[in-house]
Design goal:
about 55 residues, single chain, 1 helix, mainly alpha
Length: about 55
């Protein structure tokens, strides 16, 4: 269908552009480890993900 063709084209363009944008931004990631329920990012950094685990 026309809608499927449009969606496929959007996916094709996005799969090319998104990696380009990320390379141009120059992301610098840091891992932060902390016990308890409150963790903060270093100054100038923003939260991009969170993982909880048990040792």
């Amino acid at each position: 269908s026309m809608e499927e063709a449009i969606n496929e084209k959007i996916r094709d363009v996005a799969s090319f552009l998104i990696p380009q944008v990320i390379r141009n931004i120059g992301l610098e990631c840091r891992s932060v480890t902390s016990r308890g329920d409150l963790v903060t990012c270093p100054s100038g950094f923003a939260v991009t993900g969170c993982t909880c685990g048990s040792a």
